[in-house]
Design goal:
With about 270 residues, the protein is α/β, with parallel strands linked by helices. It has eight helices and ten strands. About 45% of the residues are buried. Bound molecules: adenosine-5'-diphosphate (ADP) and magnesium ion.
Amino acid sequence: MRLRSGRRQKADDRPDAEAPATASGLAVELRGVRRRYGRGAGAVHALAGIDLALARGTFTAVMGPSGSGKSTFLQCAAGLDRPSAGSVRLGGTEITGMGENQLTELRRSRLGFVFQAFNLLPSLTVEQNVLLPMRLAGQRQDRRRAEAVLARVGLADKAKRRPGELSGGQQQRVAIARALVTSPDVIFADEPTGALDTGTAAEVLGLLRQAVDTLGATVVMVTHDPAAAAWADRVLFLANGVFAGGLERGSAEQIAARMAALTARPGAMAEAVA
Ligand SMILES: Nc1ncnc2c1ncn2[C@@H]1O[C@H](COP(=O)(O)OP(=O)(O)O)[C@@H](O)[C@H]1O
Ligand SMILES: [Mg+2]
């Protein structure tokens, strides 16, 4: 792997890396984002005009029927895919015109990722996995910082283990520690509890919730599970590539009812956003 010496700030040089967010400014801003796959008559409009502004220190869940554009949304919002039109700003930085190297650097140093399949490197220890974003970004590998985030997710005693020696829930907690280590502008989570049982899922969601409430982290989570989405401050519903309403502080039952309505009317157009 390529190690780079960076010009960017080290995570521990940032002001108040551990302090609650000042709640000023937007963490994520999408304007008129469209993503089309293919051309002509066979084109699929996976995202058909997305406008979104998420404040720092918020926890947002994105839900929608299969094929509604959730994965495409997450990929475009996180700089992993390029929109066909529109603009994306992360932590106040316009990423739309960025080149591949710049985008890679931004993802490493300013974004955190938690995936369904954990995506830990099996040959590295837990601590080395947590330090990986710093290593890849060419930052000093701050072992005390790794220790602190591992303690935060309840794995202080597992630093020297390898992922294969841990349970699924523990592995996902390592992934959360890895996502937190650089104090990123945004943590993107794609079905983070999809491979976990209910009890373990609740632990993982509780940690994401805690990161928002006590560290001022900003979390954007795609999920199909109403119980998972209920941990968020707000649920946004996607249908046919557009947002079709939202729900603030909804219960799992309320969220499930909205999902059922969306799924029952697959042709439904966007309703007024709450
Ligand atoms: N690489 C691709 N090529 C062509 N069509 C795609 C591609 N990825 C996704 N799509 C289509 O875009 C739409 C949205 O897909 P996706 O974002 O994966 O939805 P979701 O994650 O909600 O299931 C679907 O109709 C899907 O078939
Ligand atoms: Mg998907």
